[in-house]
Amino acid sequence: MGVEKGTRDSDIEHEEDLDEEPGEVIESAPPLKVGEERELGNSGIKKKLLKRGLGWETPEFNDEVTVHYVGTLLDGTKFDSTRDRDSSVIMKLGQGEVVAGLDHGIITMKKGERALFTLPPELGFGVTGRDAVPTNSFVRYEVELVSWIKVVDVSKDGGIIKKIVEKGDKHDRPGDLDEVLVKYQVALADGTIVAKTLEEGIEFYVKDGHLCPALPKATMTMKRGEKVKLVVQPQYAFGQEGKDASDAICPVPPNSTLYIDLELTSFKPVIDVTGDAKVFKKILKEGEGSLVANEGATVTISYTARLEDGTVFERKGIDDGQPLQFITDEEQVIAGLDRAVATMKKGEYAILTVKPEYGFGNVETKRDLAIVPPSSILVYEVEMSDFIKEKTPWEMNNQEKIKAAERKKEEGNLLFKSGKYLRAGKKYDKAASYVGEEEVFGDDEQELVTAMRVTCWLNKAACSLKLNDFQGAIKLCSKVLDIEFYNIKALYRRAQALIQTTDLVSADMDIKKALEVDPQNREVKLIQKTLKQLQAESNKRDAKLYSNMFADMTKQTSAITKKLKVERADDDMKNVEAVAMEMENVADSSYPPDNAKAVDSC
Predict the structure, then answer these.
(1) Could you report the per-residue pLDDT of 252-262, keeping only the tens digit for each?
(2) What percent of the chain has pLDDT over 70?
(3) What ranges does the record list as Basic and acidic residues composition bias (predicted)?
């Protein structure tokens, strides 16, 4: 059991006048007050708080704690004391290195706390006892929790054990895509150092790995500024083969356990903007606050745009140049830049990597400073100078909402006419949100906003049909029909979508309803004609299917009949043979035994 120089009671400032600390969680019980004693759940362990601790965190099983303790019997007889040895003790919780009950008590303590625990025999020394402790004795431990080191089983199989030496200063941890800056020193069991970073550390992308499998796995569990000690088993180090010497590492023998001192200095978050690994944003400097530009914002950015080989093809807002101002989601810049900028905060500085699908595609494009070859990957260094977000509905009065809805609807109409159905659909959605059903309008405005809502739903349904989103079209048309039961456009467009989903019966019902309202409607009559053709084809297919089924059944019946006839003939033949044999047996039994002899004598 390891020991270190302890901390005396007098070294810790008295906390009795502080606000009451949160206390250990014992079901729903309130925190203990100094001098108060309580049983810990139903464990049989009693805890009396002698001095409050600091903060709110408590250790867990497997953590390494540094404690002082004094063990006594109920009559005050002392049998063990770190105070007398003037050395605190390091112990791993959950191992029962002193007694099991003590571990259960310590996990309720905070740093600097002092408490008195009374342990029943089964959680103390039991029936065996120990020197100076009789069998089946209750014992008391006065414990001071000096500090502890968090211990984490990173790999969940004991292959990578992490001991937190120094906590990080933030809550976020790096992800698989992020670029991390780390410092480390790697040693073997005998203390031989086999690898060490320079003072400035080393950068790598987590997904690309570094040194050995354990390093990126452990790094993903760490916070900025966190320092840890890793114990890495061979399967997460260099395995049975070991590692030959190289520029980065000295030779590592086969099946070696590694001991790594690791510090996560910093990391740069990398975000998959489009979700398909074709536009990445690496944040070099965090922006202000929590608001991002998002769609429809007027943004002002400065940037340098390069090809992968470093060729600069465009600059905006650099070296006294004018920054670029544009509205996001309006196709005023390439899609990759548009989508990424919409995720940025004011003051954020980031590097964007844009694949051709979100850049200039497979065509050659002339820009300000250079020509961009076909299928080029683009790299933008972008700083968000400022942005002005569109007003949200709750920031507008009713007249502003109605005007904004009308404006977005008209923008959607222009996009629809240009064949840009996806963007048009977004505009109709936006327009409908300004006059949504949850918004409160006056009686004189209600008819107007309901009509606007219906128009937006119908137009979005038309976009959905163009984009082959038939279920989306059905849903939107159904919303309209909940308000206007005989809306011809809604019935017509829903029928179109239903036909595409092969629900011909429902489509026929919608068409008949539409013709009840307008028997001469040309579009509805045309789709009815199409529906009848599809129904006729469907009937033919059904007839053919049933015909084949009946033919198969007839063949099967004929085969069964033939089989029955054959089986019946076989049965008749067997019966005849049986009768003949029986007759022969009868005939044989009618001959007298002596007659046989007479024949033999002739």
Answers:
(1) 999 999 999 99
(2) 86
(3) 1-11
Contact 152, 144 (CB under 8 A): no
What are the two backbone dihedrals, phi and then psi, of residue 296, each rounded to the nearest 5 degrees?
85, 0
Sign of the Cα torsion 108, 111, 117, 120 reads positive
Mean pLDDT of the residues in the chain: 87
* Bridge-based pairing state of the strands 349-354 and 365-366: unpaired
> Do residues 158 and 233 touch, judged by C-beta distance below 8 A?
yes
Q: Are 4 and 66 in contact (CB under 8 A)?
A: yes
What is the structure's pLDDT at 1? 40
Euclidean distance between CA atoms 179 and 467, whole angstroms? 38
Amino acid at 243: K
Give CA torsion, residues 26, 30, 36, 41, to 10 deg: -20
126's enclosing H/E stretch is none
pLDDT higher than threshold 70 for residue 576:
no
* pLDDT single digits (tens) 253-297: 999 999 999 999 999 999 999 999 999 999 999 999 989 998 889
pLDDT range class, residue 573, cuts 50, 70, 90: low
Q: How far is CA 5 from the centre of its chain?
A: 45
Alpha-helical regions (H) of 189-296: 214-219
Return all residues near 441 (Cβ < 8 A) that are at least 6 apart: 398, 435, 449
Distance CA 55, CA 22 (A): 9
CA distances from 396 to 291, 391, 393, 440 (A): 19, 7, 5, 12
Which residues does 408 contact at the CB level (< 8 Å), separation at least 6?
427, 428, 430, 431, 434
CA atoms within 13 A on the CB side of 158: 1
* The model scores a pTM over 0.85: no
Per DSSP, the three-state class of 127 is: coil
Q: What's the pLDDT tens digit per position in 414-451?
A: 999 999 999 999 999 999 999 988 888 888 899 999 99
Q: Which two tokens stand for residue 132?
A: 């100076």
CB-CB contact of 476 with 457 (8 Å): yes
